[in-house]
């Protein structure tokens, strides 16, 4: 895959993540839109359902009443004019006449002819409306003779029922003439009304959909109006967390969000003042340490010169120093050297804290640099070196020497001999060795580092044992080594080897030029952050 394709893939992935972050179900905007949509959908569906039900009953009732009145009227006028025992031809002719009414329904007439036989007359012909098309329950109700009372003046009534045949709704009605004689049944298709109701249902469905879309747009607009101050507050909080303590919100209005913006501004102002005070005190503390270190260097220089003379007198046989005070002189010499190292380390730490430490880069052979460090401190007999020559890196030789001296010296002092120093190369991400890293491991054969001590080995002035706060070291060596690794763009880690002993791993880039430029800009940013945080 080419670099352009990789970049395009990353851009598409970032865009997809951005869209998903805006649409994720934990988004307040999406939840508002969903709630508005559900409320609108519930209201629209309820209103549409009620409207459809009311219109359906109104349409069907109006059509049904008109058809039943017309059928009842036709039964009274035309069927009532038939003789008590009509012939089939008379029934057929009357049924046709009844079917030609304004409602255009199908009619079936049933009676007994003069011979006592049951005859039928249908407006639909022989294959039209028949008695089998009438529900049995309706036939029984029509033919059943009711008891005549004061509340029920007629033995027969008009009965009706809605049925569905082949997905088509029909209205079926039947009645028997008062006094006996002809029984009539009517069949009326309700398909036109069903089509009208279907069109109404579609219209209500479309109206519901439009209401849902409108509510979603309204919810989005409302969410934007409500959430815009919240988004501004979130952006301001992120800027505040990034160290931009001068961030403030523009306040407008008198609502709760305006009160929240005012509270944020007051909190940011108080935080900026407090951090500024802390930064000023921290700067004063660093300046005090730097000034104190500089002031101590002058008397220390004189004292160091005197102690060197005293040390020479101690080594000179037959010297003029009384044997009784020789231990005290040796103590003064060692403590003066320790104090001198402490002052130098404090000055180095002050430079790191102030961001004034800079690299002086040079192309060095890592193996030669390690050998020079070991040889200068007479550690050749106690250190095993596993480093092939020809591994070059562009780094600061002096700061690398400081790192190695602290790591190897710490291993010799607190670990066990022999101390083994190994060097290897790690290629870069693109497989180019020149853009990779140099890894230096310093391993001792001591008891290792206690697990509770491992997270603190690079802390300043940290003592592994509180019962022995005094030692030959200043407690700053490993901290200074780590700072020197960081200024190279590298890292130091501490761990325990499975075979025993502690292992310190130094990882530095092969070419620190890019890291140095980034470090310089980072130093400026750190100084600004220290001023703000």
UniProtKB/TrEMBL annotation:
Source domain of life is Bacteria
Where in the sequence does UniProt note compositional bias of the Acidic residues kind? 524-533
Question: Which region ranges are annotated with the description Disordered?
Answer: 513-533
Presence of the UniProt keyword GTP-binding in the record = no
Q: Where is the HAMP domain?
A: 224-276
Single GO term (MF): kinase activity
Localisation: Cell membrane
Give the EC number: 2.7.13.3
Please provide the record's keywords in A-Z order: Kinase, Membrane, Phosphoprotein, Transferase, Transmembrane, Transmembrane helix, Two-component regulatory system
Where does the chain cross the membrane? 32-54
Catalytic function, reaction form: ATP + protein L-histidine = ADP + protein N-phospho-L-histidine
Q: What are the residue boundaries of the Histidine kinase domain, all occurrences included?
A: 291-512
Q: Which PROSITE patterns did the record assign?
A: HAMP (PS50885), HIS_KIN (PS50109)
Signal peptide (from-to): none
In Swiss-Prot or TrEMBL terms, this protein is called: histidine kinase
Q: Which organism is it from?
A: Streptomyces erythrogriseus
